[in-house]
């Protein structure tokens, strides 16, 4: 049995060695045969800066970047504020830390399940207006999971904003955090895929990277915003708090009722904007469908050239 330090060092060294191996000896970035028509080498991918401009010219992409990026930012803000908001209500340090772990783990589970579900069913959309439910239904069904997950994450966020103000509500807090993490992170892989669809043929790294960057910027804004509105605890909260020792400086203990209401309000605002405004056009799928029809002799080859020109 090795000691803890040696085991951790060996583990980190092994993982680093695997990374070095792939970086030095794997020289092919693409498979010999394109996995889909949209991966064909004939497609001209715009340069980086041109791809950035293309992304920012798309209203659909702006909606996705603000709403999905905002969701990531709100997730980060919750993780940052979770421990101090729980300890002021008397929850134990072990419970506070466990909730942070639960938030991340439930998010990983939700993202994995939603990704597998979408890959198997192709359903990216759940909200379909009755007036045009039968118009291009196959495309509209593709963001089903994303919008429903966003809505359920909003319900969980409101539940957490209420439960966080009461002591002794471990079950309520656990359920709210688990559901927010699971449904909130479920939209992440689907949203990145939607960004690729809306900006095709822009490189995937460009569209996804911009969403991640915008999300991190919003995360900083939300953390600052929520910390501005913290309040002073009452004598009962000072008596039950577990944030600091009783003999320590109690001035550092603050309440989070108003910040969590602001946080939940931001979640709901992003959901409303996303559900109403996000109706993407699936450029990559359209190209692949036209390419497949051409290969089967259903569409003339000129159609593909026209599609490339349009993109």
Concise account of the structure shown:
Keywords: Membrane, Transmembrane, Transmembrane helix. This protein is an all-alpha fold and 311 residues long. The protein contains 12 helices and no strands.
Radius of gyration: 24 Å
CATH architecture of the largest domain: Up-down Bundle
CATH class of the largest domain: Mainly Alpha
The count of helical stretches stands at 12
- Poorly predicted runs are 125-138, 298-304
Q: Determine the CATH topology of the largest domain.
A: Growth Hormone, Chain: A
The biggest beta sheet reads: none
Strand element count: 0
* Average of the residue pLDDT scores: 80
Order of helices and strands: HHHHHHHHHHHH
Q: What tags apply to this protein structure?
A:
about 0% strand, about 300 residues, MFS_trans_sf, transmembrane helix, membrane, mainly alpha, 2 domains, FLVCR1-2_SLC49-like, about 70% helix
Characterization of this structure:
The chain is an all-alpha fold. It has two domains: 235 residues, Growth Hormone, Chain: A (Up-down Bundle), CATH 1.20.1250; 29 residues, no CATH class. Helices cover 70% and strands 0% of the residues. The chain has twelve helices and no strands. The N and C termini lie far apart (60 Å). About 7% of the residues have low confidence.
